[in-house]
Design brief:
It is globular and about 55 Å long. The longest helix has 24 residues. The chain starts with 16 loop residues before the first helix and ends with a helix. Helices cover 45% and strands 4% of the residues. The chain has six helices and three strands, in the order αβααββααα. The chain has 198 residues and is mainly α. It has two domains: 133 residues, Arc Repressor Mutant, subunit A; 65 residues, no CATH class.
């Protein structure tokens, strides 16, 4: 599989170690761009622990598939990239929202779903100590403030491990990247429930 073969987020889960690596690198780059706004390949390499050549290649591929774009810069060799921002003039529906956040959210959810499906297909091939997952879901009645507090507690629980993404030497032996996905949102009534229809 080459970079030409991957068009995130659509398509089947990557089947090879190389495909998983491409998915991991591109996901890390997208996460970094969402966090910091714009980066060059060299800056991304420094933050993520990959080579600048690998980051440059995958940034170009993400741009080729329309997920990111060159950020404005003052010239020179440095080529910063950012998440793609649709032109509000060509899409009036984006005027009242932050399109980069929405686009990244859709892309991230697609990558999450793709990664989960890949895990289900490949779980039996994982080392025995990794053949389980910790998936769970719950519904709780919360106020908006309580929902924010729950999110803060989850972020706080993850904080001690987050620097390992940028500092490979801080990772304990045997550590693997683990998807940590949390979605907190209110369960709104369906239209039929609001109108009393059955």
């Amino acid at each position: 599989m080459t970079g030409e073969d991957v068009n995130l987020p659509a398509g089947p889960p990557p089947k090879t170690r190389e495909g998983l690596r491409e998915h991991e690198v591109r996901t890390a780059l997208l996460d970094l761009l969402a966090e910091v706004g714009a980066v060059t390949a060299t800056e991304a390499a420094g933050r993520l622990g990959y080579s600048s050549g690998l980051c440059s290649f995958h940034l170009r591929q993400l741009a080729r598939h329309g997920h990111i774009e060159e950020a404005p810069h003052s010239g020179g060799r440095a080529r910063p990239w950012r998440l793609r921002r649709p032109d509000p003039a060509s899409d009036p529906s984006t005027e009242d929202s932050d399109p980069s956040t929405e686009d990244f959210g859709d892309l991230a959810r697609g990558l999450e779903d793709e990664s989960w499906q890949h895990w289900l297909v490949q779980r039996d091939q994982a080392p025995s100590e990794w053949r389980r997952d910790e998936a769970f879901s719950a519904v709780a009645y919360l106020t908006p403030e309580e929902m924010s507090r729950v999110a803060a507690v989850i972020r706080g629980a993850l904080a001690p491990y987050q620097d390992r993404d940028q500092r490979p030497l801080a990772r304990p032996e045997g550590a693997l990247p683990v998807a940590l996905i949390t979605r907190l949102f209110p369960l709104l009534p369906h239209p039929a429930e609001v109108t009393g229809e059955e």
